[in-house]
Design goal:
Elements (H helix, E strand, L loop, with lengths): L5 H11 L4 H25 L5 H22 L5 H20 L13 H18 L4 H11 L4 H25 L8 H20 L3 H21 L18
Length: about 240
């Protein structure tokens, strides 16, 4: 789906493995590094990347993720999650109701505007630890008429530096689960290669609809799920996520 995996991983770490919210977000950003690194090579090999567009987005996303991770260290993500969930819900309905057709709508936005898009995506990624693809892919598909495969490839390429910067920022604050991390990353690499292969063999309209279903599930989890507010370090269980 080109989203990095954080929207699945963070809830699993918090609810199944009882990780603190900040720790789960930092671990998720580290996870997205491996996922994007493996998958983006496959997309590039099949000419599903727009390198210039990814560069513009990354210029804004890197400072954005620093801003987002800094805000996350001091605030609760509850209200942002609700607002973000509502936006995702509307986007999913739009994609399901009328999937964009190739050649319809406008074209790519100017570079400086895509830098601002990158700032938005990076800030949200750093704040709630999900990689940012759930925002970026719909913007590219609906707003800039980028085909679904290319949008996912661009998203994965942009997630790579975002994940590196965000993970380092969380790690410096001690918000990273190191126990079991190597196994988690190895599994992510295998899953990323499998997902990229499946995406390449899926037609764009079908892939768009599948992405919309993923957005619906994400919106439901964010809007209806049990609050996972930021947990103070003093309240974290010993040994991280083990």
């Amino acid at each position: 789906m080109g989203v990095g995996g954080g929207i699945v991983l963070v809830p699993l770490l918090v609810h199944a493995l009882h990780a603190a919210q900040h720790e789960a977000q930092g671990t998720s950003l580290a996870f997205t590094i491996v996922v994007s690194l493996v998958a983006v090579g496959f997309y590039y090999g099949h000419e599903r990347l727009d390198l210039a567009l990814a560069l513009w987005l990354t210029l804004g996303a890197v400072p954005g993720v620093l801003l987002g991770s800094g805000l996350a260290a001091r605030t609760s993500a509850a209200r942002l999650r609700m607002a973000f969930g509502a936006v995702i819900l509307v986007t999913a309905i739009r994609l399901l109701a009328a999937p964009p057709q190739a050649g319809s709508g406008g074209g790519l936005w100017p570079g400086p505007l895509n830098v601002l898009v990158g700032v938005l995506v990076g800030t949200v990624a750093g704040y709630i630890g999900i990689g940012g693809g759930t925002i970026l892919v719909p913007i590219l598909v609906l707003g800039q008429n980028v085909d679904q495969h290319t949008a996912q490839g661009v998203s994965l390429l942009m997630i790579l530096p975002v994940g590196i910067v965000g993970a380092l920022s969380y790690s410096r604050r001690g918000r990273m689960a190191h126990q079991g991390l190597a196994a988690l990353l190895a599994g992510g690499a295998i899953g990323a290669l499998t997902g990229a292969l499946l995406a390449h063999h899926t037609k764009a309209p079908t892939l768009t609809r599948l992405f919309a279903v993923l957005l619906l599930a994400t919106a439901a989890q964010m809007i209806l799920g049990r609050p996972r507010g930021n947990v103070p370090r003093s309240a974290e269980p010993p040994g991280g996520i083990s």
